Amino acid sequence: MPINSAETYKTWVRYAYCRDNGHTKFIAKADQCEKNFAGDQWLAEDKAKLEANKRPALTINKIISTVSNVLGEQIHNRAETSFRPRGKYTGNADVMTKVYKQISDNNQLAWARSDMFADGIIKSRGYLDVRLSFSDSSQGEVVITKPNAKNVIVDPDAEAYDPDTWGDLFTTRWMTADDVAVLYNEDDAEILRNRDNSTFPYGYDSIQMNRDRFGDLMNPLYAGGYDMSNVLRNIRVVDRQYRLLDRQKHFLSPETGDTRPVPDTFDRNKIAFFVEKYGFQVITKLVRRIRWFVMADNVELHNDWSPYKHFTIIPYFPYFRDGKAIGLVENLLGPQELLNKTSSQELHIVNTTANSGYKVRAGALTNMTVQELEEKGAQTGLVIEVNGDPDKDVQKISPNPVPTGLDRISYKAEEHIKTISGVGDSQMGMDRADVAAKAINAKREAGSTNLVKPLDNLTRSDYFLARAVVDLVQEFYSEERVMTITSDHTTGESETFAVNEVNEVGEVLNDLTIGEYDIIVTSVPARETLEDSQFDQAMAMREAGIQIPDSVLIDSSRLINKKEIIASMQAASNSPEAQAQAQLQQRAMEAEIAKTEGDAVVKRADAGLRQAKMGEAQARTAEILQGEPADSAGQAKMAEAQTKQATAGHQMTIDQAMAEQEMSLKEREHQLQREKMEGDQALKAQDLQQKRIDARMKATADAAAAAQRPAPKATT
What is the per-residue pLDDT across 450-473, written as a single tens digit (0 to 9) for each? Predict the structure, then answer.
């Protein structure tokens, strides 16, 4: 596009306003946090003064280990996004979930999301960029990238987390002329290709002069010839997305009242087609649309309405309070500085104790000079030769005692870091050996509570990301596509499915362009941690007596070839030998149950016999106590006879039950022996038959080999 000085200047003024009202301060804070995270924790002037005075400047980086623990917590609890239908039309929620998974896999979203989380924890701001790309597919694919947080400039007047409430935002990048030619226009690239030797009208800002890259910091006003313009990133591109009021046509559904904007590419005939087919009405509404303007110096590269419903930038802020983003590292700068200074001071005091200095009379030293004594005075085994009395002419200066409580200051600094970050010894696996495991787990759970808010805000960002992806899919994934997702990363199992497929009767299957969905973001532990937890729970249930199948235990383990193991187990369980063995085991169990039931019958009979004998004893006791039968001698004798008869009946019942039980057990044992013999004979016959087949095959192979072997030559 041609040079547009008026529009580019207006954009530059807004860019400078947003940069100077908060973003420059964020850049300074982000740089300081990045340096402290990397271990560059001393100011250059302070370190130079200490080195000039020969004093140590220790760096004990506690920030990187603390932040690494927080990042590990996020990695081990990554989120999974799914969709469910909302409203009257159920839609294709399951298919939309699979499409989102395919987009995530293509863009390695798990890693990009972790990088965004790290930016937020360290710098207090992290971002993802979501847009459509046609570089790999002519149909267009959703591309998710992670821009540098320092290059994203948010509307300084915004005060909410949701980017839909922002007025505008900028992203600034350095590009080569070839990048401009591919992304925008070759003519514009030629205009900008050799401007590195001239002064840009709008100058360079501090953000780009100190941008992040692999090389050292350098002045961006470097020069390069025409042949170097394909590698020199000396063209600063400013990308602005902002909202403007506009009257836009919308489709209105009379049934639901929902409205959707009519794409700018629809002509009158296409609009009429949708009105006639679906019964829509066309209305005009005043809406806030996104305008997209891209410039490099005073060259207008792009200026049009954005095809997206949302800004392409998805933000993440660990803590957010009315427009103020707060990270974790910035609150650790003070304790880390205190730890470094107190540790350096402790070392300095120890060094001065070992070499506190000497008092020397002028001309007393004979084997060295005063300068040599100063350099070598702390060496072990040093010999000082003096001209006079050594106790009077050379005296060692007594060092100052170590200040009381100096070591406590460094200890307090470490404790401050743990307290502020919420990452204690339990979270870092550094508890003492005498601490109970239950206490360690309780401390870990309590420590994890400190990370609830940063992880909850990450879930909020995941929602904004899924919302933007769904809108892109419904807007641009309108043609038939075949997609493949990996359903199981451990085994490599994949699933292929089609979307927007038209069947024989003209119906669209798995139509992605219609439907409304609720976004569900759930936290899922890392696969290794999840599998370990599942296996431990399954083993605990097995030990508790719950009949967990072996296949379930193997499937929840971390064995690489567990699918093949389960398949081989199932094949072995279906073999004739395994079935025969299972039948034998089943009958053995039945015999054991029958034996247990027989023992129960015997015990019941014994109990009846004991009860009858007890009744007889009670009757005799009553006779003795009364001196005579209660009624008469005849009645007593009748009772005695009845008791003896009952006793005999119980005894007969017991004997009969025991005889039947013994006979049943013997029959079952004989039956099991016969079945075992029959099974052994069948196995032996099968083995013999297999050996015969192997012998015949071997004989056939030997004969074939002998036939192919050349005949021996005759000897003379």
Answer: 888 999 999 999 999 999 999 999
Q: Answer yes or no: are the C-beta atoms of 103 and 480 closer than 8 Å.
A: no
- What whole-number distance in Å separates Cα of residue 655 and Cα of residue 659? 6
Measured CA to CA, the distance from residue 423 to residue 124 in angstroms comes to 18
DSSP label at residue 263 = P
Q: What is the DSSP letter of 387?
A: S
User: Tell me, what DSSP letter sits at residue 360?
Assistant: E
The residue length of the chain stands at 716
| Cα atoms in the 13 Å half-sphere on the side-chain side of 646 | 17
For residues 568-598, one letter each, b for 16 or more C-beta atoms within 10 angstroms of the residue's C-beta and e for the rest, the string is eeeeeeeeeeeebeeeeeeeeeebeeeeeeb
Q: How far apart are CA 277 and CA 580, in angstroms?
A: 66
Q: Are 343 and 410 in contact (CB under 8 A)?
A: yes
Residue 682 CB contacts under 8 Å (≥ 6 apart), including other chains? 580
pLDDT the model gives residue 197: 47
Domain residue extents for the chain: 357-397, 528-573, 576-701
Segment holding 521, helix H or strand E: strand 516-523
Q: Nearest CA to 158 among 7, 8, 303, 317? A: 317
Name the token pair of 554. Answer: 């193997």
Phi-psi label, residue 33: left if phi above 0, alpha if psi -120 to 50, beta otherwise:
alpha
Task: Residue 678: count other Cβ atoms within 10 Å of its Cβ.
Answer: 11
- Complete DSSP assignment for 490-507: TTTEEEEEEESEE-TTSP
CA nearest to 607, candidates 571, 643, 650: 650
How far does CA 32 lie from the centroid of its chain? Answer: 28
**End-to-end CA distance of the chain, in Å?**
99
CA distance 531 to 558: 6
What is the C-alpha separation between 639 and 652, in angstroms, rounded? 20
Sign of CA dihedral 324, 327, 332, 337: negative
704 dihedral zone (left: phi>0; alpha: psi -120 to 50; beta):
alpha
Give pLDDT, residue 194. 67
Residues of the chain with confidence (pLDDT) below 50: 197-198, 206-209, 220-224, 628-631, 714-716
Distance CA 526, CA 141 (A): 27
Beta carbons within 10 angstroms of residue 414's beta carbon: 16
**What is the model's pTM?**
0.69
For the residues of 185-247, what is the DSSP string, one character each?
-HHHHHHHHTGGGS--TT---HHHHT---SS----S-----GGGTTT---EEEEEEEEEEEEE
